[in-house]
Amino acid sequence: MKIGRVHQRKITDNGGCSSYLFLAAISLMICLISADGLSAEVQHASSGLKIKLGENWREMSKNIPVKFTPMPTFSGSHDFQEPRQLLWRPAEAGSPLTKAANSGDKEEVERLLFGGADVNHRDAGGATALIMASQNGHGAIVDALLAKGAELNVQENNGVTALFMASQNGHGVIVDALLAEGAKIDVQAQNDATALFMASQNGRGTIVEALLAKGAKIDVQTDIGATALFMASQEGHLEVVEALLAKGAKIDVQTDIGATALILASYRGNAEIVAALLAKGANTELRIEDGGTALELAKNASIKSMLRAAKKP
User: What is the C-alpha separation between 74 and 51, in angstroms, rounded?
Assistant: First the structure.
């Protein structure tokens, strides 16, 4: 059986040990990135011990503070693995303040701050109390931390910020508060994703609008070449796609294997998004490396009809 590209990234576990994450796409198998669709293997650098991550990868990953991007791969057929950003973090935060912010214990946060706790203390993964509270939607704690001078733009070891996490997880009130305080919008995480990228991928329409209103860069590409429009098109978030197109998002940006927003929307059967992209002049002739065009990959008859009609004579 033919194996697609194998992607390897060095990571560090909680004890500071080095590991390697291997991702492979197997031909004739469509692997959609979901709780059941990701398979990976972690190998300890010194001992060589390998741990296979299968259906229970979410549980097993709790103690691995790493964020990685599953890479889109083609095996020579029309089957491929779609990119989606995932964030893993340590199971427990470090300092008492960070732990209290993480769990949403406002009284404990206030007690610790009153007692002189360092509002900007960073745990082993680089997280602060503000990042943890923003990630988990604890707005009152975010306000309390900001009032004590919490730094807005601290990045964890994997590059994420408080705004990034609030945007990714859909906490609009917190996003508004951080933006009002002057949070930097286009900070890029380890894989080059931004707050706008994550909000777009996850269908956070109101947050996407807020970030765009503050001038977020639309066409930033991750380390595999994906953009906010690409991910919103893949995931079927029409409202987000329309917002990005209205702000002038580039339509035909290609990933490292040539995939475009139109190709992914066609493949996933997102007909309304296909129509929106075609209305803005999306190129129907672009082709994925060792794969097909949007028309060749489309499985929906109505989408195929739209794509045929849009093809230049």
Answer: 25
